[in-house]
Amino acid sequence: MIKKDNILISKFIGNTPLRRCDALSTRYHTNIFIKEEFHNPGMSAKDRPALFMIKDAIAKNKIKPGGIFVEASSGNTGLGITLIAKKLGYCAKIFVSQSCSQEKIDLLTKAGAYIEICENSNGLHDFNSTQFRAQSFASDHPNAYFTNQYYNSQNIRAHYKTTGPEIWEQTEGNITHFIAGIGTGGTISGTGRFLKEQHSKIKVWGVEPRGSILSHFLQHRTLPDQTVAFDQIEGIGRNFIPGSFDAAYIDHIFQVDYQETKHIANEYYTQTGFTAGFSSAAVLASLERYRDRIPLTKTDIVVLFFPDHGSRYMSKLYNERVHHPSPLQTSDHFNF
């Protein structure tokens, strides 16, 4: 039964649409396409690494039937793990930080996850972090497995094997730029590696919040002497270097702040009627802030990575005037 369900789940994850955005293409005088990851069953790109990490753990007998998959997550990976684990006969316990949106917590609860809210997500060195608490729980409980997306090679592999090839095929090999927010680093590292293996001149650009340290690391290959609290753009930004972040395939990382991200999200909604997710809006903010420094031509093919949907951030990101229901009904995506 598990093998049959595994095949069924794999069929529904990935192969998401790539849509040309006329509004953005006109605004920036180029060809801009959006990789719409919210068409996955859990409505996010994190379904991809969740599937790969779970399949790898089961195949290597790291967990027995009926066990508990454990993850530290801003919500999306946790939801993907919860949905897949439940389908395969496992449980899930997800450690989220107190900055996690209420919408995501509600979705995790609805999906059947056991949730624990932690002070921060500052990495394994911080006793109050989601990562440390998740690792401790898995160590203290029999038949519990910490998928550990920040250091699990399957995170990168999922995007190298699926996201990259999809984009390459959907653009017929004509992509010139790939832009994505960076959280764990798995998306941009795996996708970037695949794309650059196809054509080394493809530009791979990351986006992070102001105060995050990944752009400093990319430029200097060292940690900054001092760290500051980075802007709370949910899902991206780090004050440590995740093991799933591979700087070798990234050309540049842009920084944006919370206010400009919120502003561009609402502006984009006004113009298109689409509510972008938090890190998707950050990608839009990077285009706007650095438009004079980004040399785009009329023939370029620019792919923006939209990992999830704005329905998960209505209370945190959008102005109160946005009251309409989400164009995607999450409940419709809960069944594989």
From TrEMBL:
Tell me the GO BP annotations in alphabetical order: cysteine biosynthetic process from serine
Q: Which UniProt keywords apply?
A: Pyridoxal phosphate
Protein source organism: Sphingobacterium corticibacterium
Which cofactors are reported in the record for this sequence? pyridoxal 5'-phosphate
Q: Which InterPro entries match?
A: Cys_Synth/Cystath_Beta-Synth, P-phosphate_BS, TrpB-like_PALP, TrpB-like_PALP_sf
Q: Name one GO molecular function term.
A: transferase activity, transferring alkyl or aryl (other than methyl) groups
- Stored Pfam families: PALP
What is the protein named? Cysteine synthase family protein
Any signal peptide, and if so, which residues? Answer: none
